[in-house]
Structure formats: structure tokens, C-alpha cells
Amino acid sequence: MTVSPPAAPAEPVARGSYEPVVPRSYAPKPSPVDAGIEVTSVARSAPDAGGGGVLSAVATVAIDGTEPVFAGHYPDFPIFPGVCIVECVQRAALAVAERSGMPEPRLLAVESTRFLGAVRPGDLLTVRLELRDHEGAVRCRATASTERGEAASVRLRLSGEVAV
After folding, report:
1. Is 16 left (phi over 0), alpha (psi -120 to 50) or beta?
2. Which of 78, 87, 114, 119 is the most exposed, having the fewest neighbouring CB atoms within 10 Å of its CB?
3. What is the pLDDT of residues 59-104, one digit of tens each?
4. Beta bridge partners of 44
5. CB of 144 within 8 A of CB of 107?
6. Percentage of the chain surpassing pLDDT 70?
7. Which of 140, 138, 119 lies closest to 129, judged by CA?
8. Binning pLDDT at 50, 70 and 90, where does residue 25 land?
9. Distance between CA atoms of 96 and 100, rounded to whole angstroms?
10. Interval 126-151: pLDDT, tens
């Protein structure tokens, strides 16, 4: 069996001036959700066994029927998209961080989500959060519910540490 040496890299077909590819900014994109987040309570707990801080909070989001996402999700049967619920949880975590004096965290990962019930126009989405130091970051565990019951459970990993 004969093995040929690797081919030389191909020359570009057209030579000339071109602009190098510049990475886009990683700045946060505008939110697809118009609704505002209202933080209704924040409580600090004593540091856990690992010495990390713990914050518990509640936030609410009034889901108005004029949200742009309802136009396509679904026109005759509007349901607030799951990704928008995750967005509300993240924005609630950012609002709690700001209110508690934490430096602004960045979203590092969506660790898990489970959608359990529909969120509809006119619902008041209540987000219960627990922010806890975890392995060099902040783990945010949240449940989102409406007056009909639990709509989602979400676990996020954020940069930073809980202010105690």
C-alpha cells in the first residue's frame, strides 16, 4: 500500500484586497421579552458548609398579550416560549445580583430546564430563585410558576460569586 504525502494547501482562487474577519462583539443581545422584572424579595442566608453565600429571591414578570413573541408562537393559541421563560429567569437573576451588590454576572451555561406548564398572555409569572456559590461560579436554581401552577424549573451557571 502506497501512502501519498499530504497535498500542499491550495492557493486562494482570487487574490486581491479583502477585509479580515473580525469577531463579533459578545455584548448581550436585546431581549425578546418586553416585560419588566420586579424583584419582590431578597433574603441572604448564612454561608453554607462550603463557606459560600446563598441568596433566595422572588421576582415577578407580568406577561402582557402584546409581547412580540406571541405573534408567531402561536397566532391562534398564544403560548409564551420556553426560551423566553429562561430569559425571564436570567434577567431576574441579574436583577437580584444588582440589588444585592454583586458584580454583574454573565451567563455561563443553561445547565437544565424542564417545562411543566404553559404560560399564556395575561399571566403573572412568579420566579423563585436561589443563588449559591458553586465550584467557582454561581448556580441559580429557579422555578417559574403562574396562578395555574409550576411552569418551569431552570438551573443556570453564572460568573462571579454571591455577595454576603
Report:
1. left
2. 114
3. 999 999 999 999 888 888 999 999 999 999 999 999 999 999 888 8
4. 55
5. no
6. 79
7. 140
8. very low
9. 6
10. 999 999 999 999 999 999 999 999 99
pLDDT of residue 3: 47
Dihedral angle sign, alpha carbons of residues 75, 78, 129, 36: positive
Count CA within 13 A, CB hemisphere, residue 82.
12
pLDDT of residue 21: 46
In the predicted structure, residue 27 carries a pLDDT above the cut 70: no
Neighbours of 142 (CB within 10 A): 24
Nearest to 127 by CA among 108, 162, 154, 100: 154
DSSP characters for 65-103?
Answer: TT-GGGGTS-TTS----HHHHHHHHHHHHHHHHHHHTPP
Report the largest interatomic distance among the alpha carbons of the chain, rounded to a whole angstrom.
Answer: 73
State how far the Cα of 50 lies from the Cα of 54, in Å rounded to an integer.
Answer: 11
Whole-number CA gyration radius for the chain: 22
Q: How many CA atoms lie within 13 A of 76 on its CB side?
A: 0
CA distance 90 to 99: 14
Residues labelled catalytic: 73
Q: Which three cell numbers stand for residue 127?
A: 420566579
